[in-house]
Structures are given as structure tokens and as C-alpha cells.
Design brief:
single chain, alpha/beta, 5-stranded parallel β-sheet, 6 helices, about 15% strand, globular
């Protein structure tokens, strides 16, 4: 890689996929965080509604995202999040992806999600600045 290409890679914006996985049809929060990430200078792809875990994994891999934000309000996080994580692992994309979950996640389920590999869970009312700062401080630094 040339020095110019390497410099360009290091300066590229943080790439994020905001995904609505499962049958949850409420996406206002996903739109709000997508806009906030875009305004913060991140490159954002929004999946749209009703995506299967496999579709989310495929999009994350194809878009080569740094951050995968899963928005879940349905209560199916204990089923959907592990499926997404296993899919990322099958493509060797898990270690390079910061995984954040937003939505209605009961406190008693959060530790299990962290143990699976979720980097952070953000509930309703979390200030956007807090989420943006978390991403900036924790996005994986890639060596290519």
C-alpha cells in the first residue's frame, strides 16, 4: 500500500450500519441515531425494517463497516443478537466490528449481551453525544 493510500485509509470516516433486525416495525430511534451519526461525520448505512440476521450480517460484511448498531424494541434481543454475532464470526468480521445495541433492553439481559460480544447497550433517552463519543473512543483501529 502506498503512503498516500495508507493515509487515506486512516483518515476515512467511521463506517456504520444501523440495522432493524426481526419483526420490530418501530424505527424512529434508528432514524434518529443514523442522522446523529451522519451529522457527527460518520458514514452511515440504514438497513430498513424487518431484516433477518443473515441479511444484517451480509450488509455489514459487504459494506465493510466499523460499527454495527442494532435497534431492537421487540424484546427478541436474546435471539437476534446471538444470530448476528455468530454470523459475523463466520465471516471473521466479529473482531473488527464494534457492536452496539439500542432499544428496550431489560437491565437483567445486558450482562449476557456483553458476554456475547456486544460492546455497549444504549437505552431510550441516552444522549446522542454519549453514543457518538463511545463509538469514537471504541471503534476498532484496523491495520490493512
Amino acid at each position: 500500500m502506498s503512503a498516500d493510500a495508507e493515509q487515506g485509509w486512516r483518515n476515512r470516516p467511521i463506517r456504520c450500519l444501523i440495522a432493524k433486525v426481526g419483526l420490530d416495525g418501530h424505527d424512529r430511534g434508528a432514524h434518529v441515531i443514523s442522522r446523529a451519526f451522519r451529522d457527527a461525520g460518520f458514514e452511515v448505512v440504514y438497513s430498513g425494517l424487518h431484516r433477518a440476521p443473515e441479511e444484517v450480517v451480509q450488509a455489514a460484511v459487504q459494506e465493510d463497516v466499523d460499527v454495527l448498531g442494532l435497534s431492537i424494541l421487540s424484546g427478541a434481543h436474546n435471539t437476534l443478537v446471538p444470530a448476528v454475532i455468530e454470523g459475523l464470526k463466520s465471516y471473521d468480521a466479529f473482531e473488527d466490528t464494534l457492536i452496539i445495541v439500542g432499544g428496550i433492553i431489560p437491565e437483567e439481559d445486558r450482562e449476557r449481551l456483553h458476554e456475547m460480544g456486544v460492546d455497549a447497550v444504549f437505552g431510550p433517552g441516552t444522549p446522542m453525544e454519549e453514543t457518538i463519543e463511545f463509538v469514537r473512543e471504541n471503534v476498532p483501529r484496523r491495520e490493512r
